[in-house]
Amino acid sequence: MGTFNESSEYHVVYEHHPCTHERVDQEKKEPIELIPDVQPKIIMSMLDPKGPNVPPGIVRVGDQVTLEAQCGDHDISKWCVEWPEGVSYAQDSKAHANMVVRHPGRQRLDVTFLFPYLPDFEPSKGGHVLDAATPPPAKLFVGVEYHADETPRLRIHGDINTRLDRTVTEFTSDVAFWTGIQNCTNALSFDTYQSFMSYLFDGENTQPAASGFEQHRFPAKRDTYRGLLTRRALPFTDTDAYRILKAATEAFVMVNCGVLRHDPAFDRGCDDSWLERRGIPVPGTSLLPIYKDHYMQRVNGISALPYLAIIRSKLPDVRLRSFPNSPGADMYDEENYAIMQQKLRDPCLLELLWSYWHEEGMTTQTVKAVERRFQNVRSVETPDPLANLEMDPLRPLATLMFGHCQDEQHRLTVVVRNYEYDHQYGLRLQGKAVQDIRPADSRSKFIEAFHNLLRLCAAFYRQDDDTTVKADAFPVLNALKEVHLILSQASSNGFGDLPSTARIEMLMEQWLLARPEFREYLPTRIMVAYPEAWMDRVDAMKKLQGWTDTSVLHFHNLGVFGEQILLSIRWGAWSPIFEPVQAFNWARFWRPQIQGYTHAYRAATGVDLTAEPGDAKLDAMMPSVLLQKRLALQERAA
């Protein structure tokens, strides 16, 4: 509103948005009103109501509210809003804002509306000449009042728990290879072997229930057995039963000792469950395509294990063969000297350490003692513990026993095995038959390096179980590299099939001992729950002969667990690895086997590989020496 004191022509204009109508009057002292059509308004609404019990319009401390500024029907681009402190602008509009109610009681919120100068006001329309600078916007202050109630206190019932999780790792493709190793070695167990023998001898229509890939391998083993049976012969009469046993055992080992042989050794359900229990991420697909497409490496046009791919790259001039040489072919002839593709892609996963520990457990010695008595040969021990045992319970096995006795000249001798134990692992048997051993190449550092790895794994598990500590896998990785280097140095032995030959012979011995006739022949303890049927026969013989009173079960666990651990180290490409994630996964994946091995080693030798601090001298001592010391203590105590 304005008043004019002199009579003249006046143009009265409101120069800011929104536009108003211009008033002209020539009379003197007449009031003039210019009323902008603004209609400012602030609308408050609940962003997240606290529930149906909160009446509309009631605001409580902690509530989130939305604020909307309205200015009639005017375009928002012609005006803007200044919100007070504590109010945040919404991202989608200048006229919207969000606010959290902080204080109780009656509150007032002051909002400033800003109306810009109208740029289309020009002197040609009767206005006056403006300065070059744009005038500041017009301001309109609008207040909104509201009342905020106190937030009601809520009573919390029940327990409030906090949890610390173990260190998270990531999946690596070598987990698929370790799974294949575990499945293959489990498929070579005595129970699976006994099921296969029953499948052959009791009728092929009674195929036993087996899980996963093993169910589909029975026909492959049957066909392999039939092929071997025509090529295996013995120069003795009436030994067909033993010849069948020998061919069937060889077929069983041939089919089951590789990951990709016949039906691949993967079972997604069991494999995923194992990874979940170990705290290793489970992939979204089966491990078989991961093993074939991601773990295996291409070298010279073929797939090979990463470790063997490195070896193959060192021999680019050596040819590859798809099939073995014909019988009698000269391997040193240029046409016959080549590398088998199957050996690069799917080597036989067997370790001689399995045979070593079963021999230390007196499995072979038990069969030897029974064979001497079967042939009416008195033991050098006086008196002979078996002299007064009648052989009549073994009469149904006479043909098998006779064939086994006569075939001794075609089996590995204890001296040959002992030399190979020393060549592979620096381990030696103790006894009269192997006293004067003179090895040319011995792995003297293996025992120390392997036991150091087991000690580092024990320390790693203590860290891994402590959820306040991030476990360090670098020491485990360095120890794996050391053991892998030692094992690879022994991979050029003269007879590469010696582990499979020793396995075949010892499986046959276990099968003979597991026959019901031996239960009647030897004074076994029926109420002891041995996991495999042949074990109580060995412990009964050890009791009769006065050998070590440590159960063969511990030696069996040393053989089974030790084989799986060493296979994952021998055939893994550990040398070029510098990131600890693979060693981290390796330690977690093989934790049951590693802890089972250390427990069985303490039970057999008395040396605890998990104790801190460790005794380096005891760790590097041969197990056979420790076993002899324990046997001497046992004899003195008796």
How do you describe this structure in short?
The chain has 638 residues and is α+β, with helices and mostly antiparallel strands. It has helices spanning 174-187, 190-201, 213-229, 240-256, 268-278, 287-295, 306-313, 341-345, 352-360, 363-374, 398-406, 414-425, 446-465, 474-489, 498-513, 516-521, 535-545, 552-570, 581-589, 591-605, 616-619, 623-637; strands spanning 10-12, 23-25, 40-46, 59-60, 64-71, 80-82, 88-89, 96-100, 105-115, 138-149, 297-299, 302-304, 320-321, 339-340.
Describe this structure in words.
It contains 22 helices and 14 strands. The chain has 638 residues and is of the alpha+beta class. Among the domains are: 140 residues, Immunoglobulin-like; 235 residues, no CATH class. It has a 4-stranded antiparallel beta sheet, with no helix packed on it. It has a 4-stranded mixed beta sheet with strand order 4-10-9-6, with no helix packed on it. A hairpin with a 2-residue loop joins strand 11 and strand 12. The radius of gyration is 43 Å and the shape is elongated.
